[in-house]
Write a structure and sequence with these properties.
This is Receptor-like serine/threonine-protein kinase. The chain is α+β, with helices and mostly antiparallel strands. It has eleven helices and eleven strands. The structure holds 2',3'- cyclic AMP (ACK).
């Protein structure tokens, strides 16, 4: 019997290696009321997301991958294998999955306040986000990212960090979501090259957008763009095309020091006036995306 790589990967997901509950299709259907429009939360990159509830009344988000692309299956396997091993208060928790009947379904904790995207780019809603709240969100994202990069045993590069992939729970705590494009580094590996560039242009570092080279630094670049967006409320058009990024920024910041990032953010929070805090956060955002001054 020769198993296709696909079925080997699925068998792996179903084995205990991932230590995740496998839900049967009936349970999922029931939980989501037949995947109806009524409980659809939205449309993600790989298919619709529905709201559901488990037997113990825990609210869940059910991500159902569209069945028509094998690209979807790769991403599904990638997402499960990556996130199943992760546990952090600033990462959306994967509750379980289902691979029955050719389905590829991921079950996540439900995030009551949707994505950061809807808060920062809507002027009316944004005015309800005061500075302490914005800082809590910024620090939370930084903590989640640091966990991915260094605190979890794996070194994970998210590769698609952006406002719409930051979800907010009922207390407005931010959690990084969508690991479909993430890559795990093994051993002493610190960077990789790919010919298949995935992610979102506005947030991509030049070396990744142009040469397909990625590392923790490319995530930090995206984090910098995100910081500028949270502070300014504007989608960063400056970086919306890779050529622009190249012309305007040259090489992305090369001297990323993981410990430094949280320290700088903490310092910014200690500033005495709101105005100074905003200024410092903009500085940090720019530092994340700017040319490395020591690289000349
Ligand atoms: O901005 P949103 O309302 O938040 O619209 C998108 C949509 O599904 C497609 O990604 C929402 N979504 C994704 N995952 C979750 C989750 N775990 N809890 C609540 N909503 C979610 C996302």
């Amino acid at each position: 019997l020769k198993l296709s790589p696909e079925s080997v990967a699925l068998n792996k997901i179903e084995s205990e290696e991932w230590e995740l509950p496998l839900f049967d299709f009936k349970t999922i259907i029931k939980a989501t009321d037949n995947f109806s429009q009524n409980n659809k939360l939205g449309e993600g990159g790989f298919g619709p997301v529905y709201k559901g509830m488990l037997k113990d009344r825990q609210e869940i988000a059910v991500k159902r991958l569209s069945n028509n692309s094998c690209q979807g299956l790769d991403e599904f396997i990638n997402e499960v294998s990556c996130i199943a091993k992760l546990q952090h208060r600033n990462l959306v928790t994967l509750v379980g999955c289902c691979t029955e009947k050719g389905e590829k379904i991921l079950i996540y904790e439900y995030m009551a306040n949707k994505s950061l995207d809807s808060y920062i780019f809507d002027e009316k809603i944004r005015s309800s986000m005061d500075w302490p709240k914005r800082y809590t969100i910024i620090i939370g994202i930084a903590r989640g990212l640091l966990y991915l990069h260094q605190d979890s045993k794996l070194r994970i590069i998210h590769r698609d960090l952006k406002a719409s992939n930051i979800l907010l729970d009922h207390e407005m705590n931010p959690k990084i979501s969508d690991f479909g494009m993430a890559r795990c580094f093994e051993g002493s590996q610190t960077e990789a090259n790919t010919s298949r560039i995935v992610g979102t242009y506005g947030y991509m570092s030049p070396e990744y957008a142009i040469d397909g080279q990625f590392s923790v630094k490319s995530d930090v670049f995206s984090f910098g763009v995100l910081l500028i967006e949270i502070v300014s409320g504007k989608k960063n058009r400056l970086f919306s095309h890779p050529d622009h990024s190249l012309n305007l920024l040259g090489h992305a910041w090369k001297c990323y020091n993981e410990g430094m990032l949280l320290g700088l953010l903490d310092e910014a929070m200690l500033e005495s006036s709101n105005q100074m805090q905003v200024f410092r956060v903009i500085q940090i955002g720019l530092l994340c995306v700017q040319e490395d001054p020591t690289d000349r």
